[in-house]
């Protein structure tokens, strides 16, 4: 889950610490899923120079149940936010958000003044970044008694402390990976919405998702990818049903394109691909 510093000088990313896992476990499928970039267990945050020649480790965990997800710099480059797993509660773990100051001093860099954020007192948090003006953070949250079917998209005002849910928590669907467009007017995210599924099947093994766009206040939701539409729709010939997971994404600097990672076929252990999708003209103009 790499992310650029706005100066272009650094890339923040997460990497698994192999010393935290039992050697007998490291080659198993369970270990690969448990420590994958999408799960973040036993991962630490690192920052490297944009040429990859220098690296700095930002977190150092000693507990095998700890980990991190999705670090992102603020638009002005002075802050770093990430989600941090603090225990193994309910399997998914108890998570918090960490906000730190990012500093450069000569040839060294560091994060300081680390604070913990838990708006809404949720069990799970996954950070997706900041609003373009740096005043809000955007993240996926899940309540203490929830499942993946209860993932919703939230924004949190860092100054006023206002928490806003942008997706409907009454609808049992998987909503994740939300990012602001550069003008701050819209948000693009992935959702199981539009692909009718039982809440019991909203998990990494069965879920089907596509990309969506909405206004920054949560209104005007519109589906913009259709990877899970059956091939040959309208044909009498029976076609095998597709299952694609539209996953993490970013928006191009000019706001015209979505670059998204898709798992096709939908599996967390096989390589996927990156797609470029033009954002809807009526939203961008």
Average pLDDT, to the nearest integer?
Answer: 90
Largest sheet: 4 strands, antiparallel
Beta strands, count: 19
Radius of gyration: 19 Å
Across the major sheet, the strand order is 1-2-3-4
Relative strand content:
35-45%
Euclidean distance between termini CA atoms: 30 Å
User: Helix and strand string, N-terminal first?
Assistant: EEHEEEEEEEEEEEEEEEEEH
Fraction of residues in H or I helices: under 10%
Structural class: mainly beta
- The number of helices is 2
The outline comes out as globular
Stretches where pLDDT is under 50 for at least 5 consecutive residues are 235-239
Give a topology summary.
Blueprint: E1 3-4, E2 10-16, H1 29-34, E3 43-49, E4 55-57, E5 67-73, E6 79-85, E7 95-105, E8 108-117, E9 124-130, E10 136-142, E11 152-157, E12 163-165, E13 175-180, E14 186-191, E15 210-215, E16 222-223, E17 245-251, E18 257-263, E19 273-278, H2 281-284
Antiparallel strand pairs: 1-2, 2-3, 3-4, 5-6, 6-7, 7-8, 9-10, 10-11, 11-12, 13-14, 14-15, 15-16, 17-18, 18-19
